[in-house]
Specification:
heterodimer, A: mainly beta, 6-stranded mixed beta sheet, B: 6-stranded mixed beta sheet, 11 strands
Amino acid sequence: GAGVSQSPSNKVTEKGKDVELRCDPISGHTALYWYRQSLGQGLEFLIYFQGNSAPDKSGLPSDRFSAERTGGSVSTLTIQRTQQEDSAVYLCASTLSLFSNQPQHFGDGTRLSIL
Amino acid sequence: DQQVKQNSPSLSVQEGRISILNCDYTNSMFDYFLWYKKYPAEGPTFLISISSIKDKNEDGRFTVFLNKSAKHLSLHIVPSQPGDSAVYFCAASGTGGFKTIFGAGTRLFVKA
C-alpha cells in the first residue's frame, strides 16, 4: 500500500506477556517514529530511527520497551512483561528523511489492551 | 514539562462559523509548526504547517497564524463544516525536525 501500515490493529493480552508491534513505513522513507497515545492524552514520543539506527532512546518509558529496525524498512516495537499502564494506542510515522522539516505520515495505530 | 500546550480540551462551533484552535509553546528553538487532524480509530493526518520565518500560512479554509514573540500559534477554520469534527493536534519541531513535540489535542465539534 501507499501509506504507513501497522499490525496488528488491535491486541489484547494478559499482564506479564510480551507483545510485538509492527510498522511498515512508506517505501523509501528513511526516518521512522514511534509514539504512544494513552486514553485522553496527547502523543508521547517514544523513539525515532534514521535508517536502522536509533540515536535517541530516552523516550522509551522503561527498559521493558525496545525497538529495532532492519533493512531500513520495517520496525518492531517490543514490550516485555506487559503492565496495565502499557495499554494505549501505539502510532508509527515515517518521513522521507530525518533532517528536514516535513510532515509525518502516520499509520492507523495498534490499540493495545492489557488485561 | 509540556513544551507544547493546547489548553482547550474541546471546542464546539456552529456550522458555517469560524473555529479557532490555540496552541502555546515554551521552547524558543522550535522553528517549524504543524497542525494534524485525527479521526477516531485513524492515525493523525497532516493539515497545515508554518515556518518560523512566516507569521501566516493559508490553505483553503485553513489558516495558521504564528506569533513568535508570544510563542503562540492558532488554527482558523472558515467556514467550519461538520466533517471538520475531529481532534486537532498542534506540533512543533526544532532545527532538523527529528523530534516533533505534540500537544494534547483539542476536540472540535461542528454542529449542523
